[in-house]
Amino acid sequence: MRAVRPGRLATRLSAQASAEPVRTLREYLRGAVVSDIADGVRLGLRLDALTIARLADEIRGLANEWPFLSFRLLADPPDCALEVTGTGGAAGMARTVFGELGS
Question: Which domain CATH number covers 25?
């Protein structure tokens, strides 16, 4: 059996399939300052500590569902940043899906 590379796996997801798992993140990421970074996207936010903790729980669940993406949550309340990165097609998916959530 051939191994599936993370970037290839990400490109096989349809737009509709990728929208459903991130729906719960909309309330946290709406209005974020979005910037491209190497292999992904960074979303800058201002959230209180409790909201950051809830966001971290949501991200942990999504990381289990989408192992082809890497998530990094940096927090110094009220400032926080979510970095989502991937390789190959997964990087483009991170930019598309999460960049749209921030706007």
Answer: 3.30.1360
> Domains in the chain: how many in total?
1
For the stretch 28-73, pLDDT in tens is 999 999 999 999 999 999 999 999 999 999 999 999 888 889 999 9
Distance (Å, rounded) from C-alpha 62 to C-alpha 29?
Answer: 14
The Cα–Cα gap between 86 and 81 comes to: 17
Instruction: State the sign of the Cα–Cα–Cα–Cα dihedral 62, 102, 100, 36.
Output: negative
Quickly state the pLDDT bin for 5 (edges 50, 70, 90): very low
Query: Is 0.85 topped by the overall pTM?
Result: no
Residue 31's domain spans which residues? 21-102
CA 24 vs CA 6, 34, 62, 65, 101: distances in Å: 23, 18, 10, 14, 10
Whether residue 12 lies inside any domain: the answer is no
